[in-house]
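Translate structure to sequence.
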């Protein structure tokens, strides 16, 4: 359940993450089919909020092939962005 939640709510290189309300609707629709209804009930009891759209950027500070602002990679909501 946690993996499905994370996969749906997180941005991917090929699509934007779903809204929290869309994730909850999807999970509710799968209760008794793909997910145990008791697990879905426990999921619904959580105090979930929309995740922050935070992106962290690691930059190379120096080097012959780099400028001071060259981005090495970004991590956004758990996803590696090359």
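Result:
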């Amino acid at each position: 359940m946690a993996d499905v939640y994370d996969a749906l709510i997180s941005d991917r290189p090929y699509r934007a993450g779903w809204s929290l309300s869309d994730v909850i609707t999807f999970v509710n629709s799968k209760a008794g089919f793909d997910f145990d209804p008791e697990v879905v009930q426990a999921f619904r009891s959580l105090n979930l909020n929309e995740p922050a759209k935070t992106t962290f950027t690691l930059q190379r500070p120096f080097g012959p092939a780099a400028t001071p602002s060259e981005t090495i990679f970004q991590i956004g909501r758990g996803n590696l962005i090359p």
